[in-house]
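Subject: Sanity check before I submit

Could someone independently write out the structure tokens for this chain? I want to compare against mine line by line before I put it in a report. The sequence has 565 residues.
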Amino acid sequence: MKVAALVFAVLPALAKGRGWLPSMGDPMQSACYNGYVGGGLIVAQCGGPTTTQLGNNPNPENRSTVTEFVAITDHSIQLVNHAGSESEWVGYFSGFGTTNWGTGMSGGEGDQFYAQAYTSYVGSAFPIWHTPTADATRSSLQKGYTSYFMQTETRLGYNQFFIGSPSGVNYYLSGCPNYDIGDGSGPSSRRTSSQYSYSYSYDYYDFDDCPRVDVKRGTFKFTVLGLMSGSMINSLNSASPPAADPHGHFSPPMDQDIADYKTLLYRSTLDVGAMAGLTGGAYSTKVIGGDHDGKTFDELTATDDIAGATLQITGAAEGAINITFTDRYSTGAYHRSKADLLAEFGGCQSSSGNIMDACTRDLTGFESGVDSFSGNSAVSKVGDSGMSRSELGNLAGAPPLDVTEVKHMKITMRPSLGCVNRPAAPSALDPQGSNTNAWVGATSDCPSWWLQTGHSEPGEPIRWAVTEPMEDYTLCEAGDCWLIDFHVELGGTTEASRTVFGNPENDVAEGWQKGTFFMYDPEATGSGFDPDAPNDDNLNGSAPSKGGLLATVVIGALCCLAALL
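---
Independent answer below. Compare away.
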């Protein structure tokens, strides 16, 4: 494992309780306390749900003095019904599987990017060893979130996604979120993967059919993969009707019939309060580009579409952070095999050593650099170098991510009501986090994972599921905190009017062998963005390197610790 020079710094506490992660702990003990530098931007990333802090680096000679930053945190999955009402899709808390890695260039010149990833789910996701139909997953959205911080200018094609699906096993998968909405008439249209019969020789398509996007050094981006499936997920699907439910197991808000909804909202939290700095000075906000160019955040309405625009947050002293939202997302449908999955993973839970590694497979291929995962030699790669991306994607019971529909991504934002000062202990059990019984007085903008109670033995006190000091990482306080919604279309009230993502087949037998997916990735840079600014592997300690996993963090009881049968 590569170790950079140690630079420990003790910083004053920021206003309102927020702290710059690298100043809060020992980076040798947790990846949360590493700070990565590139192109004038400093990034710190932590755990699950992943919080990413982005700060400017105005003084490369003293990079530990970060006093202004924004924080982005995964929030929730919301569903909007055909009448326009919104509700959160929840699930029982069973922990988040998290990991991070760095990927190096083929010449051994250093890491091209650092990544922090976690996987979770909402709905009724049962582990694969529940074989009877009565225990099939009724409805579920498995989610994989990966944040990247680029250390060199890169032409990025396929992205790498870390996801647990079904519960009990994990995959590194390749997916292409770079396709444009086009008619397929030529290279500039960036066609979907289903329109390719071979790999193009155009430079823009120089790797196995995924368009490459130029990503500058010092750019932060996060990618989201959602897999939706279930035995009762969709009452409109005629090809595979939903399972019968004679015993009334279907139980909202955990179980959902997706046909009842027109939009899925993937929600993130943007906390800008730390841009006031140590002295609590004034910061400003502005939208650049798009239909709402020049507006401040406060001037936006809850329905204004900011897709394709840049959000600029200018700090009291150190400049601006720019966050750009891509205006499209990719979707498709998949079939996968339980027999193939058990043939690959059977017995992995009885392995000695790290069970999470033993029950994880890498299907990203064997190319160098950013074109395949190389962050953990303990995770087995599947397939061989002679296989195409399509062939690799069908191995080990994984969901093949063949894109068949590209849609406009509507993006909206509104002020959060805030979610601060959670009590030290819950006042009642609430494993779904679907009400405020555990935290009397919590606002409706608190995510379910912050309200959920965890696993307690009889006679033990009730505990929160997520015990990490999230309010030290990001403080979602009214006035400084915003909820950003990414609108994934599901369609209308007839099967003919449904989108590809909004019309999954029902898998009566298992609840996960058929389904649909979406992929999306925005990016951010600092105002002092300079591709020639010096890089440093990290500020405060150890950094990921090729072939070595920095850390695996588990919050709560990880979902994949039961035995495969």
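---
OP: Matches mine. For the report I'm noting this point. The two ends are 35 Å apart (CA to CA).
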